[in-house]
Write a structure and sequence with these properties.
Chain lengths: ~375, ~300
């Protein structure tokens, strides 16, 4: 991987011992405050003593104080280098405190039975959640559905590629078409699930149901049978996200040098041939990026399913996210839901690593 | 139609010439046919929602489509939201509710996008210009660490956050949502901005530093103005994503900090609600984004194209 050109600056920093000591004192001092407050709060929540805290907020504030002091101390201790670190540090601290810590905490929750409305609180229950998951046909069904949903991306990709080719061609009113094609992406999935899922697909008055009847479909019902329901969700999701892939592919098409396509024309490649032998291979890296990002977004699919079918009929349209959402809504047990989510995360990481390795090998220039 | 393609000049032969033009017209017809069809597919649901909000019950049942031709527009849907001309001056609890949700959405999405663009730009600039070594992590590892957050599905964080927020008294607050939304769009911002910064030559900062500016001075006065289009693109993309976010909002808010999507979703469930008022509500929820999409389309496309071409 080639790194872009970097700044090389030689700076002569002479940082006095006193300044260094002040910096260290800042970190440790605020650290002690944080530890003290956290310990006091911990003691209260374990019923050791009463400190008068109503929640963990003071600990949060102390953490913010510590983080600020930590950033500031970098400059004090390391001078110029510290100023450079300051560019990345806030974002890094933010992400670490908001993902790594909850993930670790999530691991703890995943192995416990914790009903939030139950006053008993968290109860460690070992592998009970894993066993329950193993025997939960709905979860496996949801995972299988995700595979189907993900496979639908290839059709979306084909459509998006076609549209990008059309938009890249010589057409009039290009701006109008671009804006029109982009709009579905801007709409909130919840509004889309009402606009399309609940009103346009409504079996009696919906315009699409009317169209279906007019085309000779006796009793149009878009969410009746499992297969049709799954297909409908796929189509609605595709409607929202095709613009996304289309724009990435369009950007790729516009980056292809004109000389290449013209040269191929001179050599007699036209139509299909020029597409398959020139454009498609050139677009391979962009295509793979677009598909990978699309897969990532597809794995988060939930809003439409929650709002249109809530997983029905019989779990046929369930995604993992919508299933866990309902699982929590119905039983308010965070332990089991977290276990399911963690397993999902592991599956995703394994699958994505595999896919990215595969993609990297595939896009490597072939000689 | 536009002038025939230059190739026609080569083929003076009338027979070949005619067949070529014929083919060309057929080709154009198909191209525009497909384009118009897809534009129709994209726009019809929006049109349908907009018109339905002006329909009355019989119009909905009969499936009328074109206002003033098929049916007489009425303010029914908007009146139920308290937003029609005759109710706009009067007190309306529904409107108050709607405005509250709307304000929540605006505050949460603007703040979190601004935060994400700020932190993300700084991080992206640092990663594109300096060499870091945090413990075992080098630049590429740090970049990967940020971008890998994209893979994390929201559902993994949702339940731990629910519990944590409960302990921190951040449930049902705007601050809680802002933190999570900032986290969820940060990788995208970093991706876009890294691309943006690496296209700016380093000579610019070097010249500025020769003139006596520090790293931060050079960044703020020289680089930031140049990178502004990219920042706008990142900001708008974040805005779209955070405005539309539903999953976290549904889990983590209940009465005070609900955003617009949660309000729309809560209405779809109840049976008593009528089509026209749902249409009005949905349309009001998507209208800001349609305006943004139409006016700032250039930036959105720029933002999404950033990662595509390397």
């Amino acid at each position: 991987m080639s790194t872009p050109e970097q700044l090389h600056i030689v700076t002569s920093d002479s940082i006095s011992e006193g300044r260094k000591r002040a910096g260290k004192a800042l970190i440790w001092g605020s650290g002690v405050i944080l530890a003290g407050i956290a310990f006091a709060q911990l003691g209260q929540s374990l019923d050791w003593w009463e400190t008068g805290f109503t929640n963990w907020r003071p600990t949060l504030y102390a953490y913010c104080l510590w983080a600020t002091a930590f950033c500031w101390a970098q400059v004090l201790i390391r001078g110029e280098q510290g100023k450079r670190v300051l560019f990345v540090l806030p974002a890094a601290l933010f992400v670490i405190s908001l993902t790594v810590f909850p993930l670790l905490f999530g691991l703890l929750i995943a192995f416990s039975s914790w009903n939030l409305s139950n006053p008993d609180g968290r109860q460690f229950n070992g592998l009970a959640n894993v066993i329950q998951m193993w025997n939960d046909p709905f979860y496996w069904n949801a995972l299988l559905n995700m595979v189907w949903y993900t496979l639908a991306i290839f059709i979306e990709y084909a459509i998006a590629f076609g549209l990008a080719l059309l938009l890249n061609g010589e057409i009039r009113a290009r701006k109008f078409f671009r804006v029109a094609f982009l709009l579905p992406l801007m709409l909130s999935p919840v509004a889309v699930s009402w606009m399309i899922g609940k009103s346009m697909l409504e079996a009696r008055f919906g315009p699409l149901a009317r169209l279906g009847r007019w085309l000779g479909w006796d009793n149009p019902s878009f969410f009746g049978s499992p297969e049709v329901a799954k297909l409908t969700i796929m189509i609605m999701d595709a409607w929202t996200f095709i613009p996304f892939m289309m724009i990435m592919l369009l950007a790729g098409l516009q980056a292809i040098p004109k000389e290449l396509t013209e040269a191929s024309k001179v050599d007699g490649a036209t139509g299909w041939k020029s597409f398959w032998e020139i454009i498609f291979p050139l677009m391979l890296p962009v295509s793979i990026t677009a598909i990978l990002i699309r897969i990532i977004f597809k794995l988060k699919l939930a809003d439409i399913v929650i709002n249109v079918t809530s997983g029905g009929p019989g779990g046929a349209t369930d995604t993992v996210t919508s299933f866990i959402f309902r699982e929590y809504r119905d039983r308010s047990n965070v332990g089991y839901g977290t276990m399911l989510a963690m397993v999902y995360l592991v599956i995703i990481i394994v699958a994505m690593t595999f896919l990215m390795k595969f993609a990297a090998r595939w896009t490597r220039p072939q000689t | 139609m536009s002038a025939p393609m230059p190739e026609t000049a080569i083929f003076k032969d009338s027979e070949a010439d005619r067949s070529f033009r014929c083919k060309w017209f057929a080709n154009r017809l198909v191209v525009y046919g497909v384009l118009l069809l897809w534009a129709f597919i994209c726009l019809f649901p929006i049109y349908w929602t907009a018109t339905t909000s002006f329909k009355m019950a019989p119009n909905v049942m009969k499936g009328n489509l074109i206002p003033w031709v098929d049916f007489q527009p009425a303010w029914l849907g908007w009146r139920s939201l308290g937003l029609s001309p005759d109710t706009i001056g009067a007190e309306s609890t529904v409107r108050d509710e709607f405005m509250k949700r709307f304000a929540n959405s605006v505050v949460v999405s603007l703040t979190s996008s601004a935060l994400a663009v700020m932190m993300g730009s700084l991080a992206a600039y640092g990663l594109s210009r300096f060499r870091y070594k945090f413990a075992w992590m080098k630049n590429d590892d740090i970049s990967f660490f940020f971008l890998s957050q994209l893979i994390l599905p929201p559902v993994v964080l949702a339940l731990p956050f629910l519990v944590l927020y409960k302990e921190l008294a951040l449930l049902d607050t705007r601050v809680g949502l802002i933190l999570l939304y900032t986290l969820s769009v940060l990788p995208i911002v970093i991706w876009i901005m890294k691309d943006q910064f690496s296209s700016i030559p380093t000579e610019l900062e070097e010249a500025a530093m020769v003139d006596g500016l520090g790293i931060w001075g050079a960044f703020l006065t020289i680089i930031l103005p140049i990178a502004l289009p990219g920042m706008v693109a990142a900001f708008i993309l974040s805005l779209v994503l955070t405005w539309n976010e539903y999953f976290f909002a549904a889990l983590l808010t209940s009465t005070h900090a609900n955003t617009l999507p949660v309000m729309v979703a809560s209405q779809t469930g109840s049976q008593g609600i009528s089509w026209w008022s749902m249409a009005a509500l949905s349309f009001a929820a998507i209208l800001p984004l349609i305006v943004i999409g139409v006016t700032l389309e250039r930036f959105i496309i720029k933002g999404m194209a950033a990662g595509a071409v390397k």
